[in-house]
Amino acid sequence: MLYSAKKNPTDLETASTTAPAPAKLIFAPTGGSADPTKAVQYLQGELSRASLSASPLTQFHAWFAAAHAANVYQPETVTLATASLPSGAVSARVVFLKELDERGFVVYSNWDTSRKAADVASNPRAALTFWWREVERQVRVEGAVERLSSAESQVYYDTRARGSRIGAWASPQSKVLEGRKELEERVKGVEERFEGVEKIPVPDFWGGVRIVPEAVEFWQGRESRLHDRFRYEKEGEEWRVERLSP
């Protein structure tokens, strides 16, 4: 004969209330607040619909210039997020914005062996997030990804330090290395290949991609986390602007 053990519901309740809580390595950091029990308050500015430009690209350019004027450290620093299909796995990394034009935001990288290259090959969409601490502002961009031509990429590539141009050829980005020596040997081989050559051609696997915006959000920090948020969304050739709840 089989017997099943039944637990009294109160036993379960007791177990759940007496089990030790998992230890927290970090809990509610205050980010430099003068009061160690309270989070930093954002008090530097505000954002209204009337102050926004008709185009998010024009608005971004104004905010980027303001970030420079406020001595924001490297305001071109941006988190680039991509996702692979069909798994849906998301990855993100910090890169530099290198260009802004009437079509969108341009970043440069290896588009053959990197994780982002694999993601974009299966899902040609990306998101960007800029965070400018000194002015308590954030900008979020979402849109489609398109490759720049080799001729377009060459223009920027020519501005890079020679070592960076060599490095673009030498590094199979994100591939496993046996050790630092392997990378150094690859660099040495490329240096020998282009010895005496000043105009190094941009590799066909390396270059720019443009994130063509379909949605852009401007975020201004406010007190009590009641931030000002405005999102631009593309509708045909026009942009619709809406205020979002914080």
UniProtKB/TrEMBL annotation:
It is an enzyme of class 1 (oxidoreductase). Gene3D superfamilies: Electron Transport, Fmn-binding Protein, Chain A (2.30.110.10). Residues 206-246 form the Pyridoxine 5'-phosphate oxidase dimerisation C-terminal domain. Its EC number is 1.4.3.5. Keywords: Flavoprotein, FMN, Oxidoreductase. One of its GO terms (molecular function) is FMN binding. This is pyridoxal 5'-phosphate synthase.
